[in-house]
Specification:
heterodimer; A: 178 residues; mainly alpha; 10 helices; B: mainly alpha; two-stranded antiparallel sheet; 2 strands; 3% strand
Chain lengths: 178, 245
């Protein structure tokens, strides 16, 4: 996420809350890279990730008038993004409809390299190749830094299940890396 | 320790979730077991690599124009209607002109009206459904509304009891919408998505409030009511899709 002075972000949020589209675009420019990273990794699907980013910012626009500033805007945005991706059924449906093959992961890897030039492509491909539930909780825990109990609440499954999914996902990534 | 360290223990060790005595036992085992030491080292390396990944990614250049168009469309719709409206065609339409005509003649229900309708159905059927549940029949969302009026724990149990069934129903209906969205007129689809977005936003806010006050009867009742509203919107959308197909 591009960072700027906190005052600037707050001013943009206030202006966008009043319907200022230029301010909202500036907020998008400042925060979309962080949102895209979450959508990309949690969906494991480059096409769906771009749709999700758009869904997130449309939702942000709709919910901004209710944002009271109790938390930082970036924290609020991050939680909104994660919730929206977790609720998303479309990427899951797409992936369930077909097996994710080598060609898909190669394509994903190329997109990840363009979006994150310094990243480890082998690791990104290993994450994208995980089963949906395992990938989502792994990203939340080991990349986004959520606690186990927070992930259990967000995903609506038991703490024990979340732990088991994350442990399995780590093992699968280890195997994929060889 | 003669046996190898379990996978769960290794992950707990990496997460710093072991007691000091458990940690001491594991360290003692690692000192003499190459297999476990190598396995833990490899897993720790994977986790460290994951945690070191960049947390930002540059999105494609053209995303903003799509967002702006959708935001403006939603704004124009809100300005024109004064409220979020679900507008579904009253009958099948196979071409654009027919779609436009059917949209004009279509059933118009505001989200508020849908909520009121859902609540009314609940009030009418709650007694019947309570009897059905007592007799061993599957519970319903309406039962959850009635029980949610009970103090504290009863409300929480009622909503929790319904969670799995609600999620299954929503999943199924959302899948119908995903698969059948292309048969709906674009303006109808926009309206459905705007309605769902509004009710989802309300559900999000209630769920957030519930994390602070999980025993609130009022919040639990609101959650149930809004979930019913979402269910109603999706059911009507699925019905419209089936009509078009």
């Amino acid at each position: 996420m591009n960072t700027g002075p906190a005052e600037s972000m707050e001013a943009l949020v206030r202006a966008a809350q009043q319907g200022d589209m230029e301010a909202f675009e500036a907020l998008y420019r400042k925060t979309s890279d962080r949102v895209y990273a979450v959508c990309l990794r949690m969906s494991g699907d480059t096409d769906r990730a771009t749709e999700l980013v758009q869904d997130v910012f449309v939702r942000v626009w709709q919910k901004l008038p209710g944002f009271r500033g109790d938390s930082q805007f970036t924290t609020w945005l991050h939680r909104l993004t994660v919730n929206l991706v977790l609720q998303d059924r479309r990427s899951r449906g797409r992936r369930e409809a077909r097996e994710v093959g080598t060609a898909d992961l190669e394509r994903y890897g190329r997109a990840a390299r363009r979006a994150m030039p310094g990243t480890r492509i082998d690791l990104e491909r290993a994450i994208a190749g995980l089963p949906d539930k395992a990938r989502r909780v792994l990203v939340l825990r080991d990349i986004e830094g959520y606690k186990y109990d927070e992930i259990a609440r967000m995903t609506g499954v038991s703490l024990g299940t979340v732990k088991a999914q994350i442990h399995r996902a780590r093992g699968l990534v280890k195997v994929a890396l060889g | 320790m003669s046996d190898h360290i379990s996978r769960e223990r290794m992950h707990e060790a990496m997460d710093g979730a072991l007691s000091s005595s458990e940690r001491a036992r594991i360290e003692s085992h690692l000192a003499t077991c190459d297999v476990c030491r190598n396995e833990l080292a490899r897993l720790s390396e994977v986790v460290a690599d994951l945690r070191a990944l960049p947390r930002s990614a540059t999105p494609p250049d053209d995303l903003w124009s799509g967002i702006r168009a959708r935001v403006r469309a939603a704004g124009q719709e809100a300005a024109g209607e004064g409220a979020t409206v679900l507008e579904l065609p009253a009958r099948a339409a196979t071409d654009v002109a027919a779609r436009e005509r059917s949209a004009v003649r279509g059933v118009r229900l505001t989200v508020v009206q849908l909520a009121a309708a859902a609540a009314a159905v609940a009030l009418i059927t709650a007694g019947t459904m309570k009897l059905a549940m007592d007799a061993g029949a599957p519970a319903s969302l309406e039962v959850a509304i009635e029980d949610a009026a009970a103090p504290g724990g009863a409300a929480a149990r009622a909503v929790s009891f319904e969670e799995g069934r609600y999620v299954d129903m929503i999943d199924e209906l959302e899948q119908i919408l995903v698969e059948g969205r292309t048969v709906l007129a674009p303006e109808t689809l926009v309206t459905i998505e705007a309605s769902l977005s509004t009710v989802d936003a309300a559900i999000d806010e209630i769920e957030t409030a519930l994390t602070q006050d999980p025993a609130s009867d009022l919040l639990l009742r609101l959650l149930t009511t809004h979930r019913n509203t979402k269910l109603g919107v999706l059911q009507r959308a699925a019905g419209a899709i089936q009509t078009e197909i």
